[in-house]
Protein backbone atom coordinates (compact mmCIF):
# COMPACT_ATOMS: atom_id res chain seq x y z
CA UNK A 1 0.00 0.00 0.00
CA UNK A 2 2.99 2.34 0.07
CA UNK A 3 3.34 4.95 -2.65
CA UNK A 4 6.90 3.94 -3.46
CA UNK A 5 9.11 6.82 -2.35
CA UNK A 6 9.34 7.05 1.44
CA UNK A 7 8.33 10.44 2.93
CA UNK A 8 11.26 12.71 3.77
CA UNK A 9 10.15 12.88 7.39
CA UNK A 10 10.74 9.14 7.79
CA UNK A 11 14.08 9.35 6.02
CA UNK A 12 15.19 11.94 8.56
CA UNK A 13 13.81 10.23 11.67
CA UNK A 14 14.72 6.61 10.95
CA UNK A 15 17.95 4.98 9.79
CA UNK A 16 17.66 3.27 6.40
CA UNK A 17 17.94 -0.14 8.06
CA UNK A 18 14.71 0.47 10.00
CA UNK A 19 12.77 2.47 7.42
CA UNK A 20 11.20 -0.43 5.52
CA UNK A 21 10.19 -2.25 8.71
CA UNK A 22 8.60 0.90 10.14
CA UNK A 23 6.63 1.65 6.97
CA UNK A 24 5.43 -1.95 6.66
CA UNK A 25 4.17 -1.84 10.26
CA UNK A 26 2.31 1.43 9.73
CA UNK A 27 0.69 0.20 6.51
CA UNK A 28 -0.55 -2.93 8.32
CA UNK A 29 -2.41 -0.83 10.90
CA UNK A 30 -5.30 -0.18 8.51
CA UNK A 31 -6.19 -3.79 7.60
CA UNK A 32 -5.66 -4.80 11.24
CA UNK A 33 -8.06 -2.10 12.37
CA UNK A 34 -10.69 -3.24 9.88
CA UNK A 35 -10.25 -6.88 10.91
CA UNK A 36 -10.78 -5.92 14.55
CA UNK A 37 -13.98 -4.11 13.60
CA UNK A 38 -15.22 -7.12 11.64
CA UNK A 39 -14.36 -9.47 14.51
CA UNK A 40 -17.33 -8.08 16.42
CA UNK A 41 -19.53 -9.94 13.97
CA UNK A 42 -17.40 -12.85 12.74
CA UNK A 43 -15.08 -15.18 14.65
CA UNK A 44 -15.30 -18.52 12.85
CA UNK A 45 -13.15 -20.50 15.29
CA UNK A 46 -15.22 -19.52 18.35
CA UNK A 47 -18.74 -19.15 16.97
CA UNK A 48 -20.14 -22.68 17.32
CA UNK A 49 -23.49 -22.64 19.07
CA UNK A 50 -24.01 -24.83 22.13
CA UNK A 51 -27.45 -25.89 23.27
CA UNK A 52 -30.84 -25.58 21.60
CA UNK A 53 -31.71 -22.39 19.76
CA UNK A 54 -34.45 -20.42 21.46
CA UNK A 55 -34.65 -17.11 19.68
CA UNK A 56 -33.01 -14.90 17.07
CA UNK A 57 -33.29 -11.18 17.83
CA UNK A 58 -32.51 -8.73 15.02
CA UNK A 59 -30.24 -5.82 15.93
CA UNK A 60 -31.79 -2.61 14.50
CA UNK A 61 -29.86 -0.10 12.43
CA UNK A 62 -29.46 2.44 15.26
CA UNK A 63 -27.86 -0.19 17.51
CA UNK A 64 -25.54 -1.25 14.68
CA UNK A 65 -24.51 2.37 14.16
CA UNK A 66 -23.65 2.64 17.86
CA UNK A 67 -21.69 -0.59 17.67
CA UNK A 68 -19.46 0.53 14.83
CA UNK A 69 -19.16 4.29 15.40
CA UNK A 70 -15.92 4.21 17.40
CA UNK A 71 -14.11 1.73 15.10
CA UNK A 72 -15.26 3.78 12.08
CA UNK A 73 -13.86 7.00 13.56
CA UNK A 74 -10.55 5.42 14.59
CA UNK A 75 -9.98 3.67 11.25
CA UNK A 76 -11.01 6.75 9.24
CA UNK A 77 -8.66 8.98 11.24
CA UNK A 78 -5.85 6.47 10.76
CA UNK A 79 -6.50 6.38 7.01
CA UNK A 80 -6.40 10.19 6.82
CA UNK A 81 -3.10 10.34 8.74
CA UNK A 82 -1.40 7.59 6.72
CA UNK A 83 -2.62 9.05 3.44
CA UNK A 84 -1.51 12.54 4.45
CA UNK A 85 1.95 11.20 5.28
CA UNK A 86 2.06 9.41 1.91
CA UNK A 87 2.37 6.05 3.64
CA UNK A 88 -0.94 4.73 2.28
CA UNK A 89 -2.43 5.39 -1.18
CA UNK A 90 -5.23 7.92 -1.69
CA UNK A 91 -7.90 5.25 -2.05
CA UNK A 92 -7.35 4.06 1.54
CA UNK A 93 -9.84 6.62 2.86
CA UNK A 94 -12.79 5.66 0.62
CA UNK A 95 -11.93 1.98 1.10
CA UNK A 96 -12.14 2.31 4.90
CA UNK A 97 -15.40 4.25 4.66
CA UNK A 98 -16.87 1.60 2.35
CA UNK A 99 -15.89 -1.28 4.64
CA UNK A 100 -17.29 0.40 7.76
CA UNK A 101 -20.51 1.33 5.95
CA UNK A 102 -20.88 -2.30 4.86
CA UNK A 103 -20.43 -3.52 8.45
CA UNK A 104 -23.11 -1.11 9.65
CA UNK A 105 -25.49 -2.17 6.87
CA UNK A 106 -25.13 -5.93 7.28
CA UNK A 107 -28.20 -7.34 9.10
CA UNK A 108 -27.16 -9.17 12.25
CA UNK A 109 -28.90 -10.81 15.17
CA UNK A 110 -28.35 -11.97 18.71
CA UNK A 111 -28.90 -15.74 18.77
CA UNK A 112 -30.06 -17.05 22.13
CA UNK A 113 -29.78 -20.72 23.04
CA UNK A 114 -30.45 -22.72 26.17
CA UNK A 115 -26.73 -22.43 26.97
CA UNK A 116 -25.71 -18.95 25.86
CA UNK A 117 -25.70 -16.05 23.42
CA UNK A 118 -23.94 -15.08 20.18
CA UNK A 119 -23.92 -11.92 18.07
CA UNK A 120 -23.88 -12.71 14.36
CA UNK A 121 -21.12 -15.25 13.78
CA UNK A 122 -18.92 -13.93 16.59
CA UNK A 123 -17.86 -15.65 19.80
CA UNK A 124 -20.44 -17.75 21.64
CA UNK A 125 -20.71 -17.02 25.38
CA UNK A 126 -22.40 -19.23 27.98
CA UNK A 127 -24.99 -17.89 30.42
CA UNK A 128 -22.97 -19.27 33.32
CA UNK A 129 -20.17 -16.83 32.44
CA UNK A 130 -22.37 -13.95 33.60
CA UNK A 131 -23.56 -12.73 36.98
CA UNK A 132 -26.23 -10.31 35.83
CA UNK A 133 -27.27 -7.53 33.47
CA UNK A 134 -26.56 -3.81 33.86
CA UNK A 135 -27.39 -0.81 31.70
CA UNK A 136 -24.45 1.01 30.13
CA UNK A 137 -23.86 3.73 27.57
CA UNK A 138 -25.25 2.67 24.21
CA UNK A 139 -26.95 -0.42 25.59
CA UNK A 140 -26.17 -2.87 28.40
CA UNK A 141 -23.58 -5.33 29.66
CA UNK A 142 -23.82 -8.92 30.75
CA UNK A 143 -21.58 -8.72 33.81
CA UNK A 144 -18.81 -11.29 33.89
CA UNK A 145 -18.77 -13.77 36.77
CA UNK A 146 -15.72 -15.32 38.43
CA UNK A 147 -13.19 -13.47 36.30
CA UNK A 148 -15.06 -13.88 33.01
CA UNK A 149 -15.21 -10.95 30.58
CA UNK A 150 -18.34 -8.85 30.40
CA UNK A 151 -20.37 -8.95 27.18
CA UNK A 152 -21.69 -5.85 25.43
CA UNK A 153 -25.32 -5.71 24.36
CA UNK A 154 -26.02 -3.01 21.77
CA UNK A 155 -29.45 -1.40 22.04
CA UNK A 156 -31.37 1.26 20.14
CA UNK A 157 -32.90 2.99 23.17
CA UNK A 158 -36.54 2.06 22.52
CA UNK A 159 -39.23 0.32 24.56
CA UNK A 160 -38.33 -3.15 23.28
CA UNK A 161 -34.94 -2.94 25.02
CA UNK A 162 -36.35 -3.49 28.50
CA UNK A 163 -38.18 -6.63 27.46
CA UNK A 164 -35.05 -8.03 25.83
CA UNK A 165 -32.90 -7.31 28.92
CA UNK A 166 -35.54 -8.92 31.13
CA UNK A 167 -35.31 -12.04 28.97
CA UNK A 168 -31.51 -12.08 29.32
CA UNK A 169 -31.81 -11.83 33.12
CA UNK A 170 -34.23 -14.76 33.13
CA UNK A 171 -31.90 -16.92 31.05
CA UNK A 172 -28.87 -16.14 33.22
CA UNK A 173 -30.86 -16.86 36.38
CA UNK A 174 -32.19 -20.12 34.96
CA UNK A 175 -28.68 -21.23 34.02
CA UNK A 176 -27.44 -20.80 37.60
CA UNK A 177 -30.44 -22.65 39.00
CA UNK A 178 -30.00 -25.46 36.51
CA UNK A 179 -33.55 -24.90 35.30
CA UNK A 180 -34.40 -25.55 31.65
CA UNK A 181 -34.46 -22.39 29.56
CA UNK A 182 -37.59 -21.74 27.56
CA UNK A 183 -38.21 -19.53 24.56
CA UNK A 184 -40.59 -16.61 25.21
CA UNK A 185 -44.04 -16.72 23.74
CA UNK A 186 -44.39 -14.98 20.36
CA UNK A 187 -44.73 -11.25 20.89
CA UNK A 188 -42.94 -7.91 20.62
CA UNK A 189 -39.67 -9.11 22.12
CA UNK A 190 -36.85 -7.38 20.30
CA UNK A 191 -34.30 -4.58 20.12
CA UNK A 192 -36.01 -1.35 19.24
CA UNK A 193 -37.25 -1.59 15.67
CA UNK A 194 -35.67 -5.01 15.28
CA UNK A 195 -37.69 -8.18 15.67
CA UNK A 196 -37.48 -11.59 17.22
CA UNK A 197 -38.15 -14.92 15.59
CA UNK A 198 -38.10 -18.45 16.86
CA UNK A 199 -34.89 -19.88 15.45
CA UNK A 200 -34.69 -23.05 13.42
CA UNK A 201 -32.86 -25.96 15.05
CA UNK A 202 -29.09 -25.64 14.59
Gap from first CA to last CA: 41 Å
- Gyration radius, rounded: 21 Å
| 3D shape | elongated
- How would you state the average pLDDT, rounded? 81
CATH architecture of the largest domain: Roll
Total beta strands: 8
- CATH class of the largest domain reads Mainly Beta
Largest sheet: 5 strands, antiparallel
Counted up, domains total 2
Assign a percent range to the helix content: 40-55%
CATH fold-level name of the largest domain: PH-domain like
The number of helical segments is 5
Arrangement of strands in the largest sheet:
4-3-2-1-8
Q: Give me the strand/helix succession.
A: HHEHHEEEEEEHE
Poorly predicted sequence stretches spanning 5 or more consecutive residues: none
The portion of residues forming beta strands comes to: 15-25%
Counting helices, strands and paired strands, the structural category is: alpha+beta
List the helices and strands and how they pair.
Elements (H helix, E strand, L loop, with lengths): L7 H6 L2 H23 L14 E6 L2 H24 L7 H14 L3 E5 L2 E4 L5 E2 L3 E7 L2 E6 L6 E4 L5 H18 L18 E2 L5
Antiparallel strand pairs: 1-2, 1-8, 2-3, 3-4, 5-6, 6-7
